[in-house]
Design goal:
Blueprint (H helix, E strand, L loop, with lengths): L1 H29 L7 H14 L2 H14 L15 H10 L2 H4 L9 H17 L11 H22 L4 H21 L8 H27 L21 H18 L3 H21 L2 H17 L2 H25 L8 H11 L3 H19 L34 H32 L5 H23 L6 H20 L5 H5 L1
Helix pairs in contact: 2-6, 3-6, 3-9, 7-8, 7-16, 8-18, 9-10, 9-11, 9-17, 10-11, 10-12, 10-17, 12-14, 12-17, 15-16, 16-17, 16-18, 17-18
Length: 498
């Protein structure tokens, strides 16, 4: 053993020398001194991942990914850079842009996920982790990923633009990657941690957003508050998914545990997050929250449903008075009602342009209803709209309505398996929620339900399939719901037959 011990310092010195040479070479090639620190950072990450619990590290990565800004969504309308924006440049921009690394097309969140995946594989490769439990949710995610990748190949074979198709396919690949990797890392012990990460990230982003709304937007830098349907927003569009998920968890907690301590904590929390949803001015957030509450009603047990009935009876008079007062008001306090009103009536300019866009998407689908066009192709403009390619080059590649857009891209044959993944997800949540034994597990299922309903609402109305924040949320929650379903025997056929 002595020779091995004596050789270790030599091996360490050799490793340090190799990384030093690589660092110097990177600096000389790129001219960027900060790139020289990349190998050292990677060593530190690998060392941390090799010693810490991998599921804990995944929760940390998940929290970091959802709390920072996605720079691609132009946070704050480009009027300010918050601390979350600076961190978001590393997480959601390519290394080619953040570090000046030629050919560095990976984003920070993707690189970190791959590092953790490699470490996880090294840890479990010699273990026998096979299980007889069925996992239809992850199988559905894998099939959806295969269909997604095939549509990229199909589109490229038909002469599609592979540069812009990367913008189309990347978020959903991120969703599936998080699901397929994290399902081998998470356990029942991380359910509560994941929910706390969602609640904490929503609160932090809400407080930051309210601060900048009060100091920049509300003070008149961009003019007075504009009602529902305007283009103004405070943070990002994808915040709607995170906030609706957190709000549904808070509402469910207050209904199921109506104790003074719980109410003292979650009532102020709900008011803060909901106020941010109002000032962030995204109509789809109110639609998603309403759909989440409706979906939650149908999956909870009878005791919780009875409490919802009692709360509903008490709230109806107040709700009617609020709707009546807010129906013709353009004040900020009336924005929930105005949002639902403009969505249903479609009388504002934004809604009318979406109608034309939807018509064009249907026209695109009719050209190839079975196989679709594949990725990398623009939708057909049967009715011409204003050309905004000078502002957003890919506007005809990523339509607002992702549902109709995907129908044109994949046709019936390839888009159906992708949407079936969400049906399997909803079915798994509903069955698993009633089988969970711990409060944290039930809250995680509620979070998954809220996230999925708002994500699908975003898909229908506001480029949901392009949301990286939504993809990270959906992927992580999908993985954890799959773990809970496996542990709690959601798909055990013998028990179901009994």
């Amino acid at each position: 053993m002595a020779p091995v011990t004596q050789d270790r310092p030599v091996a360490y010195l050799a490793l340090v020398a190799v990384f030093a040479v690589v660092s110097v070479a990177l600096v000389l090639v790129t001219g960027n001194v900060f790139i020289g620190f990349v190998p050292a950072v990677l060593i530190i990450l690998v060392a941390m991942a090799s010693r810490a619990r991998l599921d804990t590290l995944m929760v940390v990565l998940f929290f970091a990914a959802i709390v920072v800004d996605n720079i691609g969504e132009r946070p704050g309308m480009g009027l300010f850079d918050s601390p979350l924006t600076q961190a978001g440049r590393f997480m959601y921009d390519t290394f080619e842009k953040t570090l000046g690394l030629p050919g560095g097309k990976l984003m920070g969140v993707e690189a970190i996920l791959l590092v953790f995946a490699g470490v996880g594989w090294l840890r479990v490769k010699n273990r026998t982790t096979a299980t007889t439990s069925r996992d239809p949710l992850i199988t559905a995610a894998f099939i959806a990923l295969l269909m997604w990748l095939f549509l990229e190949v199909w589109g490229a074979a038909r002469g599609g633009d592979t540069r812009l198709s990367l913008l189309q396919i990347r978020p959903f690949i991120t969703l599936c990657a998080f699901a397929l990797i994290m399902v081998h890392v998470f356990s029942t012990r991380t359910a509560t941690s994941l929910v706390l990460a969602i609640l904490g990230a929503a609160l932090i982003r809400s407080l930051v957003g309210i601060f900048y709304w009060a100091t920049i937007f509300h003070s008149g830098v961009i003019g007075p508050y504009q009602g529902a349907g305007s283009g103004n927003y405070v943070m990002t569009h994808s915040d709607s998914i995170l906030m609706c998920t957190a709000l549904l968890v808070a509402i469910y907690t207050m209904i199921t545990r109506p104790r003074l301590r719980v109410l003292a904590l979650f009532v102020p929390y709900t008011l803060i997050v909901f106020f941010f949803v109002v000032v962030n001015n995204r109509r789809i957030a109110f639609v998603g929250l309403a759909l989440g509450c409706i979906a939650l009603y149908f999956v909870v047990d009878r005791v919780v449903r009875r409490r919802i009935h009692l709360l509903g009876i008490a709230a109806v008079p107040v709700a009617l008075l609020y709707v009546a007062a807010a129906w013709n008001s353009n004040a900020s306090w009336a924005s929930p009602v105005q949002s639902l009103r403009t969505v249903s009536e479609g009388s504002d300019g934004s809604s009318q342009s979406r109608v034309i866009e939807n018509y064009n998407l249907v026209a695109t689908y009719r050209q190839n209803p079975v196989l679709g066009s594949g990725f990398g192709h623009e939708y057909v403009e049967a009715v011409h709209m204003p050309d905004i390619s000078h502002v957003f080059e890919a506007y005809r590649f990523v339509p607002h309505n992702s549902v109709l857009g995907l129908m044109g891209i994949g046709g019936i044959l390839f888009s159906t398996p992708i949407w079936l993944f969400f049906a399997v997800f909803a079915f798994t949540i509903a069955r698993t929620l009633l089988r969970c034994e711990r409060p944290g597990e039930r809250l995680l299922c509620v979070a998954a339900l809220g996230c999925m309903t708002c994500y699908l609402a975003q898909c229908f109305g506001d480029m949901g399939l392009q949301s990286l924040l939504g993809s990270v949320l959906m992927g992580a929650l999908c993985a954890h719901v799959s773990v809970l379903a496996r542990v709690r025997g959601t798909f055990d056929l013998e028990e179901t037959a009994a």
